[in-house]
Design a protein that fits this description.
- The chain is α/β, with parallel strands linked by helices.
- The radius of gyration is 23 Å and the shape is globular.
Length: 571
């Protein structure tokens, strides 16, 4: 086979990078815990310096309007989680330096089914103030003890000299913090040096990422590569690569692991991968939002409709954990009124470019599959009347774009909730994240049955009155599919990332938030100070609040809080 000159140059670049990393593995192995913590602190400082350029580059390739509040998304999902993750990981490394467990200082309680739950949010007074009303727990599998959680936390950092070879990270193209966070997890949780291959969509961030990762690049522990699928294929199959981690879709995963076409399908069916090395992944799916019926006010319906519009349209709908199906009770007297609010929220959300490759084609396929779907302003699509017994694409294929379905099930209260959980588990593709929305009165009526239902949901993150994206933004939470998938039935992936406490074998993260924002929550007797969250697509001051939050994460201090609160309240 003749190799083109440009590809031959890229092949030589890959070879040089991997040779560097083989040598760099020795340097990484020689780094003790104190040195690894210092490197995290240096990456943290570099991220703070590059934050402005980072957001500017992300806004450019996503073609966001100048001055749009949507710029806040790029602050909150770009530099902000890298800053918080560096700080949280550094704290875990410091705990190990001092012969403590990273879990020390975190509340460890119980969850249904004999599970241990580590409360990771709030942790400290700043969390209590900035994310008031929100909480998160990491649930371990049934049978795991508090003692084993404490003893196992730290993962490969408990043996820093015992390195794991060279890992490849195939970077995501949608959320700009993903490539950096995945590199850090490979290094610190798995003790592998890393070749980061950027998604071509994010090539405009190459210089920013080089500066952010410079401390690790200079050490020889990281190399950054660009190029198309041909470069990626050469890289992952290279004999000097020991492990591959990727973010994307299940279809892309299968093409990389098994190959394409009939031969790839045959390999997948036979369980004989073309890529013969370990692979972990964070993939998308059909994420549900289960709306439990209750007695809602007009303001409640309006706010939760904006919440669902955010779950769908944040980042234009190009999120692995974007909500794709609203599961609602056909017997809820307020169903039609609520869906009217959802239509309005989808229509009124700010317009934005369809920046992600293939978006128009995916939306077109959805419209072709559902000719009666409603076309809503800004290229958005609402598909109603879905049948849970019909395995159509709305339930089985990630649209990765501004397409939202509505699935109606009978019943109210516990009956509806049980049926919704069963349907989500058995009918919807993927296990990355599931959202539930319920009125405080409904939660009180359900009692312990609610946590039992959460335990039954087979999803890596479950969010109650919050979006699962909050789990992504919580450095000490875990992020990934529900455990148990295999290469030939990968669903939403294998393994977890983020997980700054370095917990061994977590099952899921459970996020909870307020049903109502402040100040309306206070008027209903609920002690919640958080206003409309800055990640809402309807938040008017998201750009300012996002910038302020990133600045705070770079240097946490009391004097920064008044400006954050003032901006958030205006949103």
């Amino acid at each position: 086979m003749t190799v083109s000159a440009p590809l031959a140059d890229r092949v030589r670049e890959v070879d040089r990078a991997l040779d560097d990393l083989v040598r760099g593995e020795t340097a990484w192995a020689a780094c003790g815990l104190a040195r690894r913590r210092e490197l995290l602190e240096q990456v943290h400082a570099a991220t703070a310096r590059e934050a402005e350029a980072w957001v500017r580059a992300a806004v450019a390739y996503k073609r966001l309007p100048v001055g749009s509040p949507l710029t806040g998304e790029e602050w909150i999902t770009g530099p902000y989680p890298v800053l918080t993750s560096c700080a949280a990981l550094a704290a875990s490394v410091e705990a190990l330096e001092e012969d403590r467990s990273p879990v020390d200082g975190f509340t460890v309680g119980r969850a249904p089914g004999g599970r241990v739950a580590v409360r990771v949010l709030p942790h400290g007074v700043y969390d209590q103030l900035l994310l008031n009303g929100f909480s998160a727990e990491v649930w371990m599998p049934p049978g795991v003890t508090k003692e084993s959680v404490r003893a196992g936390a730290g993962l490969a950092l408990r043996r820093p000299a015992d390195t794991g070879g060279v890992g490849v990270v195939l970077g995501a193209g949608n959320i700009t913090s993903i490539p950096i966070l995945d590199v850090l997890y490979e290094l610190y949780a798995n003790n592998r040096v890393v070749a980061l291959k950027l998604n071509p969509v994010t090539d405009g961030l190459l210089d920013v990422f080089r500066h952010v990762l410079a401390p690790l690049v200079d050490l020889g522990a990281v190399r950054i590569l660009t190029g198309g699928a041909d470069v990626g294929s050469y890289l992952v199959h290279h004999p000097k690569v020991d492990h591959v981690h990727m973010t994307g879709s299940a279809a892309t995963h299968d093409a990389i692991v098994f190959g394409t076409g009939e031969e790839g399908a045959a390999r997948r069916k036979a369980g004989t991968p073309l890529l013969g090395k370990p692979v972990t992944s964070e993939l998308g799916g059909v994420s549900p939002t289960i709306v439990i019926p209750g007695d809602w006010s007009e303001a409640d319906m309006r706010y939760q409709a904006e919440h669902i519009a955010t779950q769908k349209l944040h980042n234009g709908g190009y999120n692995c954990v974007a909500s794709q199906v609203v599961v609602i009770s056909s017997d809820w007297p307020q169903k039609d009124r609520f869906l009217a609010h959802v239509r309005a929220a989808l229509s009124d959300a700010p317009a934005r470019a369809a920046y992600y490759p293939g978006s128009d084609d995916r939306v077109g396929r959805a419209l072709a599959s559902y000719p009666d779907a409603e076309r809503i302003g800004g290229g958005r699509v609402l598909i109603t009347g879905l049948d849970p017994s019909d395995p159509g694409p709305a339930l089985t294929t990630e649209h990765f774009g501004p397409v939202l379905g509505v699935l109606e099930l009978p019943g109210e209260g516990r009956q509806f909730l049980d049926e919704a959980v069963r349907t989500a588990n058995e009918r919807l593709a993927g296990t990355l994240g599931a959202n539930l929305i319920a009125h405080p009165g409904t939660l009180a009526a359900l009692g312990p049955a609610l946590d039992d239902a959460i335990a039954e949901l087979r999803y890596g993150t479950v969010a109650l009155n919050a979006w699962t994206g909050v789990g992504y933004l919580t450095a000490t939470a875990t992020w990934g599919a529900f455990p148990g998938h295999t290469l030939d039935d990968v669903q939403s992936g294998i393994g977890v990332v983020h997980n700054a406490l370095l917990l061994d074998g977590p099952e899921r993260t459970v996020v909870r938030g307020p049903f109502r924002p402040a100040p309306r929550a206070l008027l209903h007797g609920q002690p919640v100070m958080s206003p409309r969250p800055p990640w809402f697509v309807t938040n008017r001051t998201a750009a300012t609040t996002g910038r302020l939050l990133a600045d705070f994460a770079a240097a946490p201090r009391w004097t920064a809080l008044p400006k954050i609160f003032a901006s958030a309240l205006r949103g």
